[in-house]
Amino acid sequence: MNAAMIQMPQGRALKIVADNTIIDVVWTMTSIEREDQLQAIYVPLLKGLMGYRIGLIRKNDQAKFDNIHSIEDIKKTLIGQGADWPDVPILNSNGFTVTSGSDSRLIAMLLKGRFDYYPRSIHEPWRDLDRYPDVVLERRILLKYPAPIYFFVNKDNTSLAQRIEYGLRKAIDDGSFDDLFYNHPITQGMLSKSDLDNRTEFVLYNPFLSKKSADLLNETQLWLTLKQQ
């Protein structure tokens, strides 16, 4: 099995693995539907990081968010997300109004006023902030919900699933998993840069979490620990 960089929407990648063509493994945020379609390897690759969301907003819009003091306040804000991201039904089910679009167009949609708040995982906003001077990081809000990312393989590929899980669990046990996670260039320093201590945390419910995924929440070593940095 070889690694290959292939740009494609999440939905298409999942279908290709389900059809057992071109690629054998995909990693993406889980949902009950995805776990029904494919075989999940039940080790959260990013320790639940995708469920810690801070937002990109237009420059000079921070004052609007300074007046948000409750979950009902932020529900009045138009939110943007990728069209096939599992976050969309999670946010909708919690009463948010979500405008969806292709991943590559979301910053342009934000700048054109199609929506006002673009939640990103706490390791994601930094490249866009460097590239778009009219976009800034919203300073006060943290949205949080359980959102594990797993490796997925074809349902019939049980030997590959077992081998991947064995390797991941071994890395967790010997500490190399956490060492890579907290020191990787993409995630290193993300907690301090996100200024989480000065944000108001709004906890959301994820009704699309399977029972098996929900049970994993009790395995604390698998999840992000904010005190690490």
Question: Could you characterize what this model shows?
Answer:
The chain has 229 residues and is an alpha+beta fold. The protein is built from eleven helices and ten strands. The strands form three sheets. Strands 3, 6, 7, 8 and 10 form a five-stranded mixed beta sheet that branches. A three-stranded antiparallel beta sheet has the order 1-9-2, sandwiched between helices. Strand 4, helix 5 and strand 5 form a beta-alpha-beta unit. It is globular, with a radius of gyration of 18 Å. The two termini are 35 Å apart. The model has no long low-confidence stretch (mean pLDDT 90).
**Mean pLDDT over the residues:** 90
Low-confidence regions: none
Number of strands: 10
| Number of helices in the DSSP assignment | 11
**Structural shape:** globular
Tell me the series of helices and strands, N- to C-terminal: HEHEEHHEHEHEHEEEHHHEH
What keywords describe this structure?
single chain, 229 residues, alpha+beta, five-stranded mixed β-sheet, three-stranded antiparallel β-sheet, 11 helices
Describe the secondary structure blueprint for this structure:
Layout: H1 10-18, E1 25-29, H2 32-37, E2 39-41, E3 52-58, H3 62-66, H4 71-75, E4 78-82, H5 87-93, E5 97-101, H6 106-111, E6 118-121, H7 125-131, E7 135-137, E8 141-144, E9 149-153, H8 158-174, H9 176-183, H10 190-194, E10 200-203, H11 211-216
Question: What is the gist of this entry?
Answer:
With 229 residues, the protein is an alpha+beta fold.
